[in-house]
Amino acid sequence: MLTSARNEFAGKVTAINQGVVNDEVEITLPGGDRIVAVITRESTKYLDLKPGAEALALVKAPWIILSAPDAGIKFSTRNRLQGTVKTVKPGAVNTEIEVSLNGGATLTAIITQESAIALRLAAGKPVVAIFKASHVIVGVKG
Fold this sequence. Notes:
Layout: E1 7-17, E2 22-28, E3 34-40, H1 41-46, E4 54-59, E5 65-67, E6 79-90, E7 94-101, E8 106-112, H2 113-118, E9 126-131, E10 137-139
Antiparallel strand pairs: 1-2, 1-4, 2-3, 4-10, 5-9, 6-7, 6-9, 7-8
């Protein structure tokens, strides 16, 4: 499967919290990181998602916000992945940041150049990648 999403994480469905309209689907990656997606109940059925099933979590790089782990801010986002900056590729307006997650996966975020400078992002610096559960697209192979 080819997509335009920079972040494609393969894992197993570990929990489904069913709602009337939407479901929360938790996908655990091989290294232990967990991603929560909010998708429609119909999508859960269509994809035949059940605990133990293989699934993909897709997250577009611009949907990811980076923060310092010690920022002292509480966020309402369901997804908070700890990691370390791997690379910083500055551009005129935006900067691409690759993050090595603590569980072993790599995540890519696109943030403004101004934010990258303000956060003093550099290789080896710890960061937290945060994104909303509604910004996760779930897919299955088959």
